[in-house]
Amino acid sequence: MTLPEQPLSPLDGRYRTAVVGLGEHLSEAGLNRARVLVEVEWLIFLTDRELFGAHRLSAEQAASLRSLVDDFGQADIDELASLEATTRHDVKAVEYYVRARLEKLGLSDVAELTHFACTSEDINNLAYALTIGSAVREVWMPALDTVIAGLTDRAVAHRAVPMLAHTHGQPATPTTVGKEFAVFVHRLRRIVVRIEQTEYLGKFSGATGTFAAHVAADSSQDWPELSREFVESLGLVWNPLTTQIESHDWQAELYSAISHANRVLHNLATDIWTYISLGYFTQIPQAGATGSSTMPHKINPIRFENAEANLELSSALLDSLSATLVTSRLQRDLTDSTTQRNVGVALGHSLLALDNLRRGLGEIAVNEVRLAEDLDGNWEILGEAIQTVIRAEITAGTSSISDPYALLKDLTRGRRVGQAELVEFVRALDISDGAKDRLAALTPAGYAGLASKMVGFLDS
């Protein structure tokens, strides 16, 4: 029995609602709409300058042409698909589509300026820059910002909640829950700055980047300057030196930065998963949700596990794009044609992960009782504080102890030490009475240094 036609990718099936916003920009239809935009704007650009005796379009005529982009819908998508089935060339189909509209609008006298002196990549590279830029700025970045805002809220709310740290998986000097969230906020904010500084480059210089056809048509024009003006009119940065293709270095830089953000988020997901397993965070039951098909007591941390997997898939694709897009044989090969069509898939998996992290962060609570229990069960972590105070006392001339580190190692390494034993040990030390009093009053929960105040660095 044959199934009805089904989506092959889970991004277009099971998870579609979480990533549908990217389709507005990075689908084939979104790419074609952007191609139409570039073709239309180039034609208007040329007629505005009355090149080759073309008449300048009226405001109404220009608006009618631009409406091809504004009103682009399913009928246009279908028509372009039909044209491409004949032309076997996606950009040529767009050119024919625009020419047909010029005929309907009574503008056939400027039809030959459609796709004038352009190679397909002149249209494509600008269309990709426009769609990738809008997808990142309007869909992916807001999702990341929402996660960062959620992390920031938790950093502030839990800034003073002490938590036993773990280095190498072993009990270590305490921190606070808020400070650990703040670390991720700080890391992600730095990457956001890099992403926001991305230059979306565009080239518009013909078959091999030499303006040869342009000069053949009219050698009196400053074609590089006209190219720069046109590219910048689209809100892009002009790339003056290319082969047939824009070199894609900006894409490699952008995907590298997004992949870096993915990996920081992956670190966040694995840390929260571990804190849940330690009981430091509890999961808030969701009405009607099933954690396990056979163990009814379980609430599985699926949001963070799903995020992990999708972040790994996204980074794998982004890393591949970064590595392959920067290479094109001689003046042009078509390897980038297929790879660039997967930008939406790469960002889609990241966007899905962000959605899971956002929801996951809203479904956990800090278990202060469990945190306090773990702190109270690990008094030996104060060995660091004691040996550091002894060193200060030796320097001040108020102690004659010869090797404070070895002294504390003998007391604490690989064994549990309780409060009473530590206080007794401190009282017997050759240090000043003031130092003894400070150390005797110290508790694991009170040994978090400036962690709470450090959350304030997020405001600077």
From TrEMBL:
Signal peptide (from-to): none
Pfam families per record: ASL_C, Lyase_1
SUPFAM superfamilies: L-aspartase-like
Xref: InterPro entries: Fumarase/histidase_N, Fumarate_lyase_CS, Fumarate_lyase_fam, Fumarate_lyase_N, L-Aspartase-like, PurB_bact, PurB_C
GO MF term list: N6-(1,2-dicarboxyethyl)AMP AMP-lyase (fumarate-forming) activity
Annotated metabolic or biological route of this protein: Purine metabolism; IMP biosynthesis via de novo pathway; 5-amino-1-(5-phospho-D-ribosyl)imidazole-4-carboxamide from 5-amino-1-(5-phospho-D-ribosyl)imidazole-4-carboxylate: step 2/2; Purine metabolism; AMP biosynthesis via de novo pathway; AMP from IMP: step 2/2
Keyword Cytoplasm (UniProt): no
Residue ranges of domain Adenylosuccinate lyase PurB C-terminal in the record: 328-447
Top-rank taxon, per record: Bacteria
Gene Ontology BP terms: IMP biosynthetic process
Keyword field: Lyase, Purine biosynthesis
Functional note: Catalyzes two reactions in de novo purine nucleotide biosynthesis. Catalyzes the breakdown of 5-aminoimidazole- (N-succinylocarboxamide) ribotide (SAICAR or 2-[5-amino-1-(5-phospho-beta-D-ribosyl)imidazole-4-carboxamido]succinate) to 5-aminoimidazole-4-carboxamide ribotide (AICAR or 5-amino-1-(5-phospho-beta-D-ribosyl)imidazole-4-carboxamide) and fumarate, and of adenylosuccinate (ADS or N(6)-(1,2-dicarboxyethyl)-AMP) to adenosine monophosphate (AMP) and fumarate.
Protein name in the entry: Adenylosuccinate lyase
Organism, as annotated: Marisediminicola antarctica
